[in-house]
């Protein structure tokens, strides 16, 4: 005691530090820009990008630390300082959240009965060097990505569990992104979106109720820029192979007057593409402003994108590929052997989102959104020997019935509506959500002639056809979460009504305006059991329904009109988080009725042609995990093993000699097109120095078939691709962060094609295959410099 008393003056005069990390108590994710202050002092700081904070030069004593983060309950804790302290703070989400609440109703929680993957802004930024958003999702389970131009810039695609983009529901802040008619998500229309994304959740299978078309392979829920309390400016610049250049500038005001924030981004991306004449010129901006009150938050997002891409959607013919001409692009070829320079796709899309959140009481909160999207554009193409009659033209020269011409096929569309969610925390362990949306779509399809080789009697920009489409989409859902000890029960019921008016063929093969009305009922049940704080098991059953898309309708007659699809999805799995290892295993059985499977063929604008099959299924196992082998070394791994089958498939082919369509062959059980039975990814990362990292990123995809016959004459070979990523981050007094990145893609120059198309027919009594492929780039690189002030 006497010795301690003697030391007290020295302890009081000594200087100590307090450091730690701020995380989410449920997910364990770090919380950057959290506010940490010490009561009754002027000491205040914010956590860095990794959630870390530090106070220096603290005298010995007792301090009252206050930690706050938007959307989380404030945490206060007394700390006794008599030596250097390291103290972590785990925050609980508040009943009402400012930004996160806009997406919460369409997402699943940490210990739910559904399978999901969360990606943070930090994880996305590692690979965001200019390639399209699907490329940033490549390392998630069951994902296969494709690029028309071969290098990840321009038109790209993603398939999850063998389902393409028309069957993957995508929302931005809970607002549908999928095109209402084609049902695809065209990220090329909003280039560099990833630079304005805060986080993404991917739910595989049907998942929880969301807005927009049903999720038949997965749903991708994107949350854009959220609150940042400190002002910043950031410059991101990339250069790479095939003339690829990306320039992005981002600015943020930080929190003004304790209530307002403003953020903005301006981007441009150019690439010549790996494929011949597959260039892309992309531009975009993103502006957002928010108000944060005690019980109210409002955010306005305004963002836009424009794209001009040389068409590369037909792929490379098989004979050219076998001859070694992997970059051949025939689109735009004119009779004189030259290529038409303006064989391009051009589109501008503008988005407006007004997001509103109101805390009504400690138990009740409401959030809603108004949205409006306007798009307009065309694709221009050179067409050879077109009949005058097809375009309603009168030839000037007698006996000349055809002409070369240049045409523009236009689309102007409008998508607008409202989404809403009412959340009621009835008890600490019981939560209700009532939500839904009403959206309208108007599409104007019109086509013009820009030039004809032969003289005609038309005026400039002659419009030879026009038709309009109209669609309404209403849904309402109710969700309940009930926790009973370690058992969590989940129930979800959705009703959805779709009305669609379109121009299509009638029984007499005349184009007339038609309509379709569909009503869907989608129930979902889930349960999970928390074995202990580190281990969780779960199971769920969900029903999904999905309407046909525009091409399914317009290319059929009322007697052959495609049916809506129904999916019964069974999921069960196990998750664990134990020290250095986190991971899980998930089993799924997806039973389809009237699934619209890809035939393998494409229409004249590169869209997939589909047909109903009565009975089909997907069944498999998915694994994902991450192990911190040592402090500087980690390994992340995913694997998906599945069987994807069509029962009783009938193949019809056109007999070229007779012009008739005949039944070629009947199959008892075949593989669903574009559905590999094994997909895996790996990322091994090593940090040799502070702020530095080298990572080996690998992807394996087994063989895929181009149609539903399991024919080796119509397939995509398996491929194994490896990339290397180098990163180094450091700071100076003038620059908060300097990031240098270098990405070497396909380091071993694997020759592979993840996508293709097939057009078999019967000639001379034999089946002849016309296959097309989308070759991906051999070894290429991207280098980036990021400066944050």
From TrEMBL:
How does the UniProt record describe the way this protein sits in the membrane? Multi-pass membrane protein
One Pfam family recorded for the sequence: TonB_dep_Rec_b-barrel
Q: Which residues form a coiled coil?
A: none
Primary site of residence: membrane
Listed GO CC annotations: cell outer membrane
Q: Where does the TonB-dependent receptor-like beta-barrel domain start and stop, copy by copy?
A: 298-747
> Highest taxon of the source?
Bacteria
**Keyword tags:** Cell outer membrane, Ion transport, Iron, Iron transport, Membrane, Receptor, Signal, TonB box, Transmembrane, Transmembrane beta strand, Transport
A GO molecular function assigned to this protein is: siderophore uptake transmembrane transporter activity
**Compartments it resides in:** Cell outer membrane
Classification via InterPro entries: Beta-barrel_TonB, Beta-barrel_TonB_sf, CarboxyPept-like_regulatory, Plug_dom, Plug_dom_sf, TonB-dep_rcpt-like
User: TonB-dependent receptor plug domain location, by residue?
Assistant: 113-218
| Protein family | Belongs to the TonB-dependent receptor family.
Stated name of the protein: TonB-dependent receptor plug domain-containing protein
């Amino acid at each position: 005691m006497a010795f301690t008393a003697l030391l007290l003056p020295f302890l009081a005069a000594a200087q100590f530090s307090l450091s730690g990390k701020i995380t989410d108590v449920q997910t364990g994710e770090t919380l950057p820009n959290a506010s940490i202050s010490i009561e009754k002092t002027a000491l205040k700081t914010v956590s860095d990008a990794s959630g870390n904070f530090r106070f220096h030069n603290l005298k010995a004593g007792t301090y009252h630390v206050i930690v706050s983060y938007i959307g989380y309950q404030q945490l206060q804790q007394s700390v006794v300082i008599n030596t250097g302290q390291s103290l972590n703070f785990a925050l609980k989400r508040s009943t009402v959240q400012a930004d996160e609440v806009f997406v919460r109703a369409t997402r699943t929680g940490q210990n739910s009965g559904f399978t999901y993957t969360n990606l943070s802004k930090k994880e996305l930024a590692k690979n965001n060097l200019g390639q399209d958003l699907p490329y940033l999702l490549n390392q998630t389970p069951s994902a296969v990505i494709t690029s028309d131009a071969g290098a990840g810039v321009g038109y790209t695609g993603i398939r999850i569990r063998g389902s393409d983009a028309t069957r993957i529901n995508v929302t931005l802040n809970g607002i549908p992104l999928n095109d209402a008619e084609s049902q695809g998500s065209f990220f090329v229309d909003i280039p560099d979106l990833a630079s304005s994304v805060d986080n993404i959740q991917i739910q595989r299978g049907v998942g929880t109720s969301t807005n927009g078309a049903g999720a038949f392979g997965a749903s991708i829920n994107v949350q854009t820029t959220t609150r940042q309390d400190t002002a910043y400016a950031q410059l991101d610049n990339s250069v790479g192979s095939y003339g690829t250049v990306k320039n992005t500038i981002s600015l943020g005001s930080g929190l003004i007057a304790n209530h307002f924030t403003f953020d903005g981004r301006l981007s441009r991306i150019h690439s010549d593409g790996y494929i011949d004449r597959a260039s892309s010129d992309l531009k975009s901006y993103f502006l957002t402003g928010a108000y944060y009150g005690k019980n109210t938050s409002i955010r306005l997002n305004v963002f836009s994108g424009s794209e001009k891409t040389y068409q590369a959607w037909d792929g490379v013919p098989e004979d050219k590929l076998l001859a070694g001409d992997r970059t051949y692009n025939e689109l735009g070829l004119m009779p004189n052997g030259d290529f038409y320079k303006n064989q391009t796709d051009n589109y501008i899309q503008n988005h407006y989102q007004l997001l509103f959140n109101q805390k009504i009481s400690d138990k009740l909160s409401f959030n809603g959104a108004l949205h409006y999207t306007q798009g307009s554009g065309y694709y221009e193409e050179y067409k050879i020997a077109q009949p005058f009659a097809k375009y309603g033209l009168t030839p000037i020269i007698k006996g000349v019935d055809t002409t070369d011409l240049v045409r523009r096929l236009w689309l102007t569309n409008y998508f607008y509506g409202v989404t809403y969610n009412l959340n009621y925390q009835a008890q600490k362990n019981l939560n209700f959500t009532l939500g839904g949306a009403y959206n309208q779509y108007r599409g104007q399809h019109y086509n013009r002639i820009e030039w004809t080789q032969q003289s005609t009697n038309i005026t400039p920009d002659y419009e030879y056809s026009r038709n309009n489409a109209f669609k309404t989409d209403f849904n309402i859902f109710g969700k309940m979460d009930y926790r009973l000890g370690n058992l969590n029960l989940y129930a979800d019921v959705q009703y959805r009504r779709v009305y669609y008016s379109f121009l299509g063929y009638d029984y007499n093969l005349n184009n007339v305006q038609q309509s379709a009305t569909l009503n869907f009922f989608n129930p979902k049940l889930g349960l999970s059991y928390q074995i202990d704080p580190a281990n969780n098991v779960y199971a769920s059953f969900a029903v999904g329904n999905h309407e046909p898309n525009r091409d399914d309708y317009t290319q059929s007659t009322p007697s052959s009109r495609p049916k809506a699809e129904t999916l019964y999805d069974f999921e069960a799995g196990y998750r664990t988080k134990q020290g250095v290892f986190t991971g899980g295993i998930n089993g799924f059985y997806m039973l389809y009725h009237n699934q619209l499977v890809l035939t393998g063929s494409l229409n004249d604008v590169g869209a997939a042609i589909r047909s109903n099959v009565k009975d089909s299924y997907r069944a498999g196992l998915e694994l994902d995990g991450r192990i911190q082998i040592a402090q500087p070394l980690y390994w992340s791994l995913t694997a998906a093993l599945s069987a994807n089958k069509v029962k009783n498939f009938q193949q019809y082919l056109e007999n070229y000699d007779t012009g008739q369509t005949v039944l070629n062959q009947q199959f008892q059980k075949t593989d669903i097109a574009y559905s590999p039975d094994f997909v895996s990814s790996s990322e091994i990362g090593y940090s040799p120095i502070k702020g530095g990292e080298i990572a080996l990123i690998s992807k394996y995809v087994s063989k895929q078939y181009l149609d539903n016959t399991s024919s080796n004459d119509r397939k995509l070979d398996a491929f194994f691709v490896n990339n290397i990523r180098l990163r180094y981050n450091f700071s100076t007094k003038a620059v908060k962060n300097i990031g240098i990145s270098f990405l070497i893609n396909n380091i071993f120059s694997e020759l592979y094609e993840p996508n293709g198309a097939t057009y078999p027919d019967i000639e001379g009594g034999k089946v002849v295959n016309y296959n097309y492929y989308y070759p991906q780039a051999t070894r290429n690189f991207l280098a980036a410099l990021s400066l944050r002030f």
